[in-house]
Design brief:
59% of the residues lie in helices and 20% in strands. With 157 residues, it is α+β, with helices and mostly antiparallel strands.
């Protein structure tokens, strides 16, 4: 269900972004304010554009969100505390905390809106180890930072 909701969000995101771009082009006078003159096939082009957005939006969540394993020898309590300290320095705040999971959200509203409220980063413990989940770019960026802090504490001992 989460995948479907993300797909719908991205469909509307693409549609709104395209509408804003076309509106800006009309306002600066780069194109006429008539759909028939903006697109070669006029109004029938809108269905083709919508179909393209549906295809892209249905695939994007598969590639846009990842789950990455955090390779560390630290225990869960240490990982949790280091993750809290690390994300406290970043534009994130603890959203929820359970025995095996720690969830962060962006603290600024603008950041949340630009990511369509898909800004959640989850650090969790499973039988297979520790994992970080979220937007691909954020997970790779912040997991690398967290892993370097965990590695530094491993080497200090």
């Amino acid at each position: 269900m989460k995948y479907f909701i993300r797909s719908v969000k991205y469909f509307f995101y693409f549609a709104i972004l395209t509408t804003l771009i076309i509106l800006a082009l009309v306002l600066i006078g780069a194109v006429e304010g008539n759909i028939e003159s903006i697109f070669e096939d006029g109004y029938s082009s809108l269905w083709k554009i919508a179909a393209f957005f549906i295809i892209v939006a249905s695939v994007y969540p598969k590639f846009g969100f990842v789950r990455r394993q955090l390779e560390t020898s630290e225990d869960w309590d240490t990982v949790k505390e280091k993750a809290k300290a690390y994300f406290d320095e970043k534009p994130f705040v603890v959203e929820s905390e359970t025995e095996d999971c720690l969830t962060f959200r962006r603290r600024d509203v603008i950041g949340r809106l630009t990511k369509m409220c898909e800004d959640r980063i989850t650090v969790s413990r499973t039988d297979d180890g520790y994992f970080m989940e979220g937007l691909r770019k954020d997970v790779f960026l912040y997991s690398s930072g967290l892993l370097s802090i965990l590695a530094a504490s491993d080497n200090a001992e």
